[in-house]
Design brief:
11-stranded antiparallel β-sheet; 8-stranded parallel β-sheet; 40 strands; about 30% strand
């Protein structure tokens, strides 16, 4: 259905695309109310849709306040909603209970999937609201956003705007994520009780503790089983995600930007547009995550060339830069198979540690008397491209920039505020600060032929007052960061950007419109990385996650792991190396080269296939992998993460294969072969070929492994061998 709709019609709108149905009630001049969000319902005629609407309406007694469902996508107090409000705003204590009526609706198809556009008025308040609800064709994701315009001469202040996606009564559990530095994406589950479960970020970026997604699902849902629904906000600043269940039984997931006082005040004719709220559903978390992955991969500017293997200098040399050392490191990296050399923090004026010089984006002549040109030339001669670290939004007080322009530093009225990693925040809302950054970064990118920026963001925006008036500047800062990324990319076609924020502190679909990968964590310990990457993968596909092989002794946890385990856990994303190759022996470098070669051989599969996880009964075990889109091949990793209470571990079942095809399963060892005398299950010695249905339902005997050890399983369709 396309075109304007009859306002008096009681026939709901059915948006179908990408395997998803969204049925929306649009009657009575009210805002859209979602009656169904989830599996495709098939083609439904007007009569069936009208009956579906009747079937979905509750029995209402003498008070619509008690039984307000189904709730509009923007819940309103004036319509009897006593839960989390959709729009909070006022004009000097008036116009505080908006009621949007006289809604008109139009369905259009933008080529990316059908969109329901709604315009509604609050004539008493002089407000106009516009809504877009879309089902994306490539993925089946639902997304929605709202725009509120003030049509009167009196300023209208918006304090919050949250949109809602309903979930059915079967959604009885909630999953969200928490974390801290070097331990991002820690899952936590709870029952979906009556009341609100609220996760807010107020540090000017989503943060290390950010939940990223808020999931509601059937009791006991896992990666492969149980219906699940989730919401995500495509925004890199302050935000809130909430799950709410009312005494009347209504359950929904809400999302919106957290606005600071008077951060959005609309003059006459001015508008506020919310970030996109995304919704995904699935049978199990793998299905839910696959929709986000398909969405990201469907974008025209999604990185499609083979992701170059990165050699990053940080853990190898930290701030100790000199041409001879870094040239030798680049040469060792090229020998091992690296394709991109990234010079991390420490290259600019006066930067010997993290206490000074941030913001002075000039190559240090004391360390680099001939500039970075000789290093870049050698890197290019070795067949690698060159990347450089920046932290554009931050500044040290001990820097030329801060001394020359103290007014460019955020100040909430008490000075620059608390330091974090000895740094403060550069206010990109100042045109001069923005122009300075663009000029310095663009000049270096163009002069040196930089192909890649590692874009860091280490400090929260605790005191983000714009000088000289002290008004909040967080929202403007996020918009300006997006603008800077976009303008640098436009000026330098082909430039790639990584979003790093003390690790995984800025991971969202907002920044991923401008960045080509994210850095999930500053922790390269494979024991932790397995879980960090697993849960980050609910949103971000493997090719957009930076996954590096770190030192034998982790620099963050001080655990020690063999190279094979470190390399296997880094295999599953955009591979990189932070091992100090100048100190590694010949055997280590040769094994590392074998792992890099194996990654290159299989990265087309790893960076395009469907990510799958087995739901294993024993919490000590993990099985996950990637299955090709045509189901012709797959690669899995079986890992032991703690000592199981029973031994041997028993059978493991391989998810994601075609039930009807036969597959050959073999264990592969890119680094070192199994130790002589190792106890192996018979199939591992003799090989096995079985139908996908048998591998899914019966499985194979798991290899017996020590803690923090893994085995790679290569599975190939017998017809393809």
């Amino acid at each position: 259905m396309t075109g304007k709709l009859n306002d008096a019609s009681h026939t709901p709108i059915h948006l179908r695309s990408g395997g998803t149905s969204l049925v929306v009630a649009v009657d009575g001049g009210r805002l859209p109310r979602i009656l169904h969000w989830g599996p495709d319902l098939g083609a439904l005629g007007d009569d069936a849709l009208a009956d579906l609407r009747r079937a979905a309406l509750p029995a209402i007694g003498d008070s619509a306040v008690t039984y307000p469902q189904p709730v509009p996508i923007l819940p309103q107090l004036a319509e009897g909603w006593l839960g989390r409000p959709g729009l909070v705003g006022d004009t000097g204590g008036r116009r505080w209970a908006p009621k949007f009526l006289d809604a008109t609706h139009e369905v259009v198809d933008t080529g990316e999937g059908p969109v329901l556009r709604t315009t509604a008025l609050d004539p008493e308040y002089g407000l106009t609201a516009e809504f877009e609800i879309q089902v994306l064709a490539a993925s089946g994701l639902v997304r929605q956003r709202a725009t509120v315009r003030n049509d009167t001469a009196e300023p209208y202040r918006i304090d919050s705007l949250e949109l809602a996606l309903p979930v059915p009564p079967e959604a009885s559990e909630i999953l969200d994520l928490t974390g801290r530095w070097a331990l991002e994406r820690v899952p936590q589950r709870r029952l979906f009780h009556v009341g609100e479960w609220v996760r807010a970020s107020r540090g000017g970026k989503p943060g290390l503790e950010h939940t990223m997604l808020l999931v509601a699902g059937e009791a006991g849902f896992g990666f492969r089983e149980g219906m699940v629904w989730a919401t995500h906000l495509a925004w890199s600043g302050n935000q809130v995600l909430a799950a709410e269940r009312t005494p009347a039984g209504t359950r929904h997931l809400t999302a919106g930007e957290v606005l600071l006082p008077a951060e959005v005040v609309l003059g006459q004719g001015e508008s506020y547009r919310s970030p996109w709220q995304y919704g995904s559903w699935g049978t199990g978390l793998d299905d839910l995550a696959a929709r986000f992955h398909r969405h990201l991969r469907s974008r025209p500017r999604h990185p499609r060339s083979p992701r170059p293997v990165v050699l990053n200098t940080w853990e190898a040399v930290y701030f100790h830069h000199d041409l001879d050392t870094l040239t030798a490191l680049a040469e060792r990296g090229a020998q091992a198979g690296a394709e991109r050399f990234v010079l991390d923090d420490g290259w600019f004026l006066g930067r010997r540690d993290d206490t000074s010089s941030l913001g002075d984006w000039t190559v240090d002549p004391d360390v680099w008397p001939d500039g970075l040109g000789p290093l870049v030339t050698r890197v290019h001669d070795l067949g690698m491209d060159f990347g450089l670290w920046f932290e554009p939004e931050m500044v040290n007080l001990d820097s030329d920039l801060a001394r020359e322009h103290p007014e460019w530093i955020f100040d909430g009225g008490h000075g620059p505020g608390l330091a974090s990693r000895h740094q403060h925040v550069l206010d990109l809302g100042h045109p001069g600060a923005y122009a300075y950054l663009f000029e310095r970064m663009s000049d270096l990118i163009g002069t040196l032929g930089i192909a890649y920026i590692k874009w860091d963001h280490n400090r929260y925006l605790l005191d983000a007052g714009h000088t000289p008036d002290g008004r909040p500047g967080v929202r403007r800062q996020v918009e300006q960061a997006y603008r800077l990324m976009a303008e640098l990319r436009a000026a330098h076609p082909g430039l790639e950007i990584e979003s790093c924020a003390s690790g995984g502190g800025r991971v969202d679909l907002g920044v991923l419109e401008f960045a080509d990968r994210i850095w999930p964590s500053d922790c390269n310990d494979p024991h932790e990385r397995l879980e960090i990457q697993r849960w980050t993968g609910l949103l971000v596909p493997p090719e957009m996650q930076g996954t590096h092989i770190g030192a034998a002794e982790s620099h963050t946890t001080h655990r020690t792991h063999p190279l094979d385990y470190r390399a296997e856990k880094a295999l599953w994303g955009h591979l990189g190396v932070e091992v100090n190759l100048l100190e590694a022996d010949d055997e280590t470098r040769a094994a590392l080269a074998r792992w890099i070669a194996f990654h290159k051989e299989h990265r087309a599969l790893l960076h395009s296939g469907e990510v799958v996880h087995a739901d294993l009964a024993d919490a000590a075990l993990r099985l996950e992998g990637v299955v090709a889109a045509d189901r012709g091949e797959a690669l899995y990793a079986f890992s032991v993460v703690e000592r199981p209470s029973t031994w041997p571990p028993g059978r493991i079942r391989l998810p994601g294969l075609d039930d009807e095809r036969h597959y050959t399963v073999e264990a592969v060892h890119p680094g070192s072969p199994p130790a002589a005398g190792a106890v192996l299950p018979p199939w591992q010695r003799e090989g096995v070929t079985l139908p996908g249905r048998v591998l899914r339902l019966v499985g194979i005997e798991a290899p017996s492994l020590d803690v923090d050890r893994s085995v790679l399983l290569r599975v190939v369709s017998a017809s393809a061998t």
